Amino acid sequence: MATASKVVSIAAGQVGYKEGRNNSNKYGAAYGMNNVSWCMEFIWWCFKQAGMDWYKTASCTACYKHYASRAVSRDALRKGDIVFFDWDHSGDCDHVGIVESVGSSRITTIEGNTSSGNAGSQSNGDGVYRRYRTRSQIAKAIRPAYDAETSGGGTCNVTVQEVKNGSKGGSVYVLQAFLTSKGYYTGKVDGIAGNLTEKAIKAFQKAMGLSQDGICGTNTWKAVFK
What we know:
The chain is of the alpha+beta class. Helices cover 29% and strands 13% of the residues. The longest helix is centred in the C-terminal third of the chain and has 13 residues, at 195-207. The protein is elongated and about 65 Å long.
């Protein structure tokens, strides 16, 4: 397994790479199928370099179907998510990228086999580029099963997910137990996030100098594992 930061860092290190003649590129060569559209092969290569198993396919549609159980809303995107595009509006995925960062109005992605600007082909360009996409341009998205990250850049042996008011499950239970031990949470440790859990998260975020949104996301989890 690997962290989202590790995979994104590997992808970012490829920005500026350009293919040769007839779609020839190192990602297709490593995959074992060169001289074809290679945006999905680029994603596979990045995960391989990170030491993380990834479904081996050159098809964006096949990849999304394989990981459909890990689909996330384009309104809830975060670093490391894999986003799919449907440029020809056929209903199938014809291009893919990896989210580097999420802003209020645009998503920064790193994509292989695309163009550096909007003038060229978005799904069969000439290299690896950092692109800025709107949420409306993203057709589908999935979140790989990354290792959780700590403030020191290592990993923990618990796979955690975002916790907010209404969340349920093991991640909520772990967070509630931690907040109880630190005196922030006084409710029942039951794996169900309600108003008391949200209040405790905000109190912890305030103490850690974090944005007090009541949602335990990447930065708040880092503070927890610190």
